[in-house]
Design a protein that fits this description.
The complex is a heterodimer. Chain A is α/β, with parallel strands linked by helices. Chain A is built from eight helices and nine strands. Chain A folds into two domains: 2-74 and 147-233, 3-Layer(aba) Sandwich (Rossmann fold); 84-145, no CATH class. In chain A, the strands form two sheets. Chain A has a six-stranded mixed beta sheet with strand order 5-6-7-3-8-9, with helices on both faces. A three-stranded antiparallel beta sheet of chain A has the order 2-1-4, covered by helices on one side. The two termini of chain A are 32 Å apart. Chain B is mainly alpha-helical. Chain B is 76% helix and 2% strand. Chain B is elongated, with a radius of gyration of 19 Å. The model of chain B has no long low-confidence stretch (mean pLDDT 91). The chains are: A alpha/beta, B mainly alpha. The interface between A and B is medium-sized, with 32 and 27 residues.
Chain lengths: 234, 253
């Protein structure tokens, strides 16, 4: 369960995130949607304590991220932005993450197999394709077997097989009772994966509803999304 | 804390830049020490006089320190340039603790590396000096060697602190390399700037390396002794590290 209350972030005079309030419940996949520059990645960074909000806070089962002890056990996160050293092997990247949170070495091998990277793990990350980098990022998020997952654009760069794989993985994780929060700008994929939607535009909440609830009278989720966010830009 | 330090040590040992910066430091220091020792031996044979064998011994450290400074810069600077800092802050959101773990891991690594570089440099220089050599038991030798290990460790931590403050390897190197080249080339002893320059971190650390002579009225003299000099250097390092902590805690990642 993630609870976001009055979250606000300013960069100079620009408001990136504007009084955002919503909760993300366990047991289903919640998609986080919005046009480019709507504030999705900023919200993700605020949730993880990488950026400091001007107002408001984010709680994971009642606790702020900064107050989590060994947070990988509670929250698994994958950021869209690069967050690993190209000169280090995938295995060593996961190893230091695991060590910092006292996770066993065996868990590193396990997650590498889960994401389908066991052979590439000894190679340096700079030689990875975008899809392999995404898989490594997902492996990092799964390391601590966390009840909450935050994934920023996990579908980016994946091939069709990878997209099907992540669709099944996300549904499986939610089916195990985890809270799964995934940002995306692929509407067709979101319609297949998510049950709940949080839509933002210009940092403000535009919709907090189910997938059928947003589609409503529209022909598709894509059409409904474009109509909603066009309204939000006015 | 030990878990975080272990993670930081894994980060240090699993990138090639660590070896690329530290191994040349060791090789250059030992090689130049041997050459410096040999050249002193030749000139002393022609014109014997009063000389400090430890000056010939540790002179090469002023060059070797450049690799160590680059290591101290990259150990945090690469986290910013590659985005690893975001992964690090996600795994350990308590920024003060994360920074402390990194500083401890760097300190222990540098103590270990210095404990190789300093003896290697010492013995290379003594073999160059031949009949003019000193031994470990001679007066002041052990003290100078311990001082040299401290000097190299402090110079590395100073670089780490400044880089954390600036959050950029390039910006840090632009400041640090000219500063330490100035010291290595002896420009810090120019009479016009010496009053001030002698308190710069590397200059203050040079007394313990026998690269200056305390109370020498000539240009190489200092207004302080070896351990006071190292203390001045430690103070600079502490300020740089605290500045880094302040920046890390305050800025968005």
């Amino acid at each position: 369960m993630i609870d976001i209350q009055h979250l606000t972030k300013r960069y100079g005079r620009t408001i990136a995130v504007d009084d955002l309030c919503f909760t993300v419940k366990p047991g289903h996949v919640t998609a986080f949607l919005g046009p480019n520059g709507a504030g999705k990645s900023t919200t993700m960074r605020l949730m993880l304590g990488l950026d400091r909000p001007a107002h408001g806070d984010v709680r994971f089962d009642g606790k702020r991220y900064e107050h989590l002890h060994r947070p990988l056990h509670t929250v698994g996160a994958m950021l869209e932005a690069r967050s690993m050293h190209g000169g280090r092997s995938g295995y060593h990247h996961l190893l230091w993450l695991a060590q910092s949170n006292r996770l066993p070495k065996a868990r590193v091998k396990q997650v590498l197999e889960m994401v389908g990277l066991p052979d590439a793990a000894r190679r340096r990350v700079s030689g990875y394709s975008l899809g392999m980098t995404q898989r490594l990022g997902i492996a990092a998020a799964l390391l601590g077997d966390p009840p909450v997952l935050l994934l920023d654009e996990p579908v980016n760069g994946l091939d069709p097989e990878g997209i099907v794989w992540i669709r099944h993985l996300l549904k499986e994780l939610a089916g195990q009772g985890r809270t799964v929060f995934v940002s995306s700008h692929f509407m067709a994929e979101t319609a297949l994966t998510a049950q709940h939607l949080i839509v933002i535009g210009r940092g403000r909440l535009l919709a907090d509803t189910t997938v059928p609830g947003l589609i409503g009278e529209s022909a598709s989720l894509e059409e409904a999304f474009i109509r909603l966010t066009a309204g939000g830009q006015r | 804390m030990t878990a975080m330090m272990l993670a930081e040590w894994t980060k240090i040992r699993t990138v090639r830049s660590t070896l690329w910066t530290l191994l040349p430091s060791l090789a250059i220091s030992a090689a130049i020490a041997y050459l410096a020792g040999s050249s002193f031996r030749t000139s002393l044979a022609d014109r014997p006089g009063d000389f400090d064998p430890l000056f010939a011994t540790f002179y090469s450290l002023t060059l070797a320190q450049l690799g160590i400074v680059v290591f101290g810069v990259l150990v945090i600077g690469a986290e910013y340039s590659t985005g690893t800092i975001r992964s690090a802050l996600i795994t350990v959101p308590q920024r003060g603790k994360l920074y402390l773990a990194k500083v401890c891991a760097v300190t222990l690594t540098m103590f270990g590396v210095s404990a190789l570089i300093v003896p290697a440099t010492f013995f290379a220089a003594q073999s160059g000096l031949g009949p003019y050599r000193v031994t470990l038991g001679d007066k002041g030798v052990a003290e100078a060697m311990i001082g040299a290990v401290c000097y190299l460790t402090l110079i590395c931590l100073l670089a780490t602190g400044i880089t954390t403050m600036l959050r950029s390897s390039i910006a840090a190197l632009v400041i640090l390399l000219p500063l330490f080249f100035l010291g290595g080339s002896g420009l810090g002893n120019l009479p016009q700037i010496k009053d001030f320059a002698q308190y710069l971190p590397d200059q203050a650390g040079m007394v313990v390396l026998h690269l200056t002579v305390p109370d020498d009225p000539q240009q190489f003299g200092r207004d302080y002794g070896p351990w006071t000099g190292l203390g001045i250097m430690a103070l600079w390092t502490l300020v740089a590290l605290l500045g880094g902590l302040w920046t890390l805690r305050r800025r968005d990642a």
